[in-house]
Amino acid sequence: MSKAFTREDDVSDLPVLPPLISPLPPGATNYLTADGAERLRAQLAGLLDGDRPALVTAAAKDAEGKRELAQLDQRIRYLQQSLASAEIVGPSAATGKVQFGSTVTVKDRKGVESSYRIVGVDEADFARNEVSWLAPIARALMNATVGQRVPFKFPTGATELEIVKIE
């Protein structure tokens, strides 16, 4: 059918956006903490039940609404795929080592302490001090024990991080 015979306000005319690319390398397991998976499920439910119905109405009115709806649908598909492929890792027994799901407090050579929680790639949130298990800092800290010094190279330079606490 010719484009001339379609309605401009037809929601099915959404722009086609490429799928969002997962930061996971090919073949890597999509690990999520239990609370991270719950946050992603809540986000997905909010998008499906709250944001999307309102945008469907807006998409019927203008091109900007159509673009926003297409972006929202792209995010919904990404979350659905992420949750479907996720391997949920529950809290593990205390081993005394930094592991997936651990919150680790480190001290640099200047005595400045920082804490990082090691989580899945789709739940990483720098504002919450949550870093992906694939992030360089997480990889450097994995399997370290309290008191151990771990070499690490920040963009500002190399240093040594002492493990102060593991939770």
Write up this protein.
This protein is of the alpha/beta class and 167 residues long. It folds into 2 domains: 29-90, Orthogonal Bundle (Helix Hairpins), CATH 1.10.287; 103-166, Roll (Chitinase A, domain 3), CATH 3.10.50.30. The protein contains 3 helices and 7 strands, in the order βααββββαββ. It has helices at residues 34-59, 63-85, 136-141, and strands at 30-33, 86-89, 103-107, 113-119, 130-132, 149-154, 157-166. The strands form 2 sheets. It has a 5-stranded mixed sheet. α1 (34-59) runs antiparallel to α2 (63-85). The longest helix has 26 residues, at 34-59. It starts with 29 loop residues before the first strand and ends with a strand.
Could you list some keywords that capture this structure?
Helix Hairpins; two-stranded parallel ribbon; alpha/beta; Chitinase A, domain 3; 167 residues
